[in-house]
Amino acid sequence: MAAVTQTIPTFIQGVSQQSEVEMAPGFLNEIQNGVPDITFGLQKRVGTKYLFTLPGITAAEGGNGFWFSIIRQDEEPYFGVIIPATVDSSNTITAYGDIKIWDFNGTACTVNFPAHSDGSAGNTYLSGSNRDNYKVLTVEKSNIILNRSKVVTESSTTTPAATVVRVSTYADLPTTSIPTTTVYQIVNSKDTDKDDYYVQYINDAWTEVAKPGITDGFNNWTAPHVLRKISATEFTFEEANYVDREVGDNETNPHPSFVNQTIQDCFSYFNRIGFLSNANVILSASLRPDYINAGNQAVNFYAKSAQVLIASDPVDLNAVSVRSILLTSVLPAAQGLVLFSNNEQFMLFADQGVVTPQTAIIKSISNYELDPIIPPVECGEEFYYINKSANFTRTLMMITRGMENDPMVTEASRLAPEYVPSTVNNLYANPQNKFIVLSDSNQEYMWFFKTHVEGQQRLMNAWFKWKLPGNVISCVFNADNIFTVLSTDNKLVVTSAPLNESADADLLLNKDTTNATFTGIGPYLDIWTKDITSVAYDATTDITTITPSSTYPVIDSTEYEPIIVLSSISGTSSSDSRGMLFSLTVQSNGTFTTPGDRTADQANFILGYRYEMIYDLPTTYMRASAGSDYTASLIVSRYKFSFQDSGSVDFRITDIDNTFNYTDVNSVTYSESYITDDLPIFQKVLFTVPIYRRNEFFRFRIFSNSPFPASLNKMSWEGQYAPRFYQRG
């Protein structure tokens, strides 16, 4: 047998579910709590900082609610949730929904519900009993809230009654002794009603009006509502200011096509408000340029004149298809609006660039199925949407390529088709860092798909997942941080984690031997905090009791071990206890205990929960240009791993016996010297792990749950290789 060695230069390609024989180097069977990075390699994710516990809401309400965020430039950001209506066994509403809002400091805001114009309570619009019934659109100073289950009803009030006199043309109108209470119908062509219009003599001038006795529009209290910010801690949820029909009749100025139908999505485009209803796209008349400063500007879905169609009039188009379609979502593209239906995609555009009633065109561009509930997201120039099978979720990526070419659609989940379960109910995008996130509000996992493109070359398409200490209810990106709402310990807890540089990196400090400065290391703990209410020592029992703030989640679970790690107060001098950690025991009264007297270290306490970084390696094969040599005999002698900026790392191995109970090869802290009273973290380190087993007879896992980082750069293996007397081609 020949002694051989091969190197895997990077592990940033993410998770693959291909056959291990076909799997390219750089993929792993599993990545939990890791982040592939094109620069730094496969990094352990940073810890999540405890911010606050949301007041005034139960974990059950939060888990069933529709979450949204209000983020505007130079303004305080907010979390919000729509709590659905409750119904009895006969589906009768027993309580209408509610809206709760908090700022990013955890302060609850007041939400007012003024009565509707028909006298009904302001929250009766929130009649949907499922979180999926709702959508929220942010438009400058306001938010539009849509109830997808609510039918927009035709108004029961009518235009003012009046005597109607028919005349053939405008020239036939009276010129003297003109009655001001009479409405004149100008017929024009006798063989069609489409050119009729109505005028009335008002204020010494002929004014176009609506036909007397027809419905004047639709009921505002059944259409999408507006959530407006009144002050830093106050919002108002109210009817939008929809304009009634003022001219024409049902033939020349009909109701918008969403009347007596439900609306599936709302959007803003070219200074217009838009709705999707069935297979129709409806755009309002152009809004005033000062809309961003308007308190509740009028939104008009009716034409301003029955005589002529002008560019600012509403647009109402049908997406014609041979398929039965339901338009559910919309996203803007450089070429126009991409419209998503349950089984076909369309582009709304105008050849002249600006969409008007005269220029708007809808064209079918692809016919892929997608989930009708979870809306697609935009991530840079890419659109992502999903569809579901019985057990798993497929993720598709679309890139539009102009009006003359079909879009490029690829399956992002092609190499991991069974990685994301079908239970996910949230899809988020972070264009700045080029990844999307899927989550299930009933699970503690977040599934990521991260890409990196340079020029025309796609260098990374990586799937991986995070496991957090609570069900992931919602996720928000702001200022290069990821904010999560977790349901844990019967509380709704808000945490944050930096996506790049950490503002809290100086809590743990590592001395740089080159220039004697200190390098910040963020605490790699979940729900970590320095907010400790009290620390008390009992000399009789030799036990220190640590009491966190009353709102801090106390998780009593073997999966999440609470620990204390000691920080440095200043980066200008060393601390003898820097990086020291000790385990805690959860008590039934919501406190933690640890042996010994720890009161002297209280100022340096960082309290948090360990989390597990897990990388599962695929089977190692001898690889040549033709691929993996799976017929050869290969004894793996050892693995060598190159890490950067890393602390303690475990390596675990198991036999192929279907139990997958891993045994530590050794728990490794690099054995060479490091500065005393400092963190056991090294800028570069090589771990050598002895194996000496047949390649197909073991599984290998890299593991870390220390409060310090770990960045895997590359790996090489050495072994004994025998081709079994075959000549390899």
Characterization of the model:
The longest helix is centred in the N-terminal third of the chain and has 6 residues, at 59-64. The chain is mainly β and 729 residues long. The radius of gyration is 32 Å and the shape is elongated. Helices cover 1% and strands 45% of the residues. Strands 1, 3, 4, 52, 55 and 57 form a 6-stranded antiparallel sheet that branches. Among the domains are: 2-40 and 627-722, no CATH class; 163-209, no CATH class; 525-609. The protein has 1 helix and 57 strands.
Topology:
Elements: E1 2-8, E2 30-32, E3 34-37, E4 41-44, E5 49-53, H1 59-64, E6 66-70, E7 78-83, E8 86-87, E9 93-95, E10 98-103, E11 110-112, E12 134-139, E13 142-147, E14 163-167, E15 182-186, E16 197-202, E17 205-209, E18 225-231, E19 234-239, E20 265-269, E21 272-277, E22 280-283, E23 315-318, E24 327-332, E25 337-341, E26 345-350, E27 360-366, E28 377-379, E29 382-388, E30 393-399, E31 408-411, E32 426-430, E33 435-439, E34 445-454, E35 457-467, E36 471-478, E37 481-488, E38 491-498, E39 508-511, E40 518-521, E41 526-529, E42 532-538, E43 543-548, E44 562-566, E45 581-583, E46 585-586, E47 592-595, E48 605-609, E49 613-617, E50 622-624, E51 627-629, E52 633-646, E53 649-655, E54 663-668, E55 682-694, E56 698-704, E57 711-722
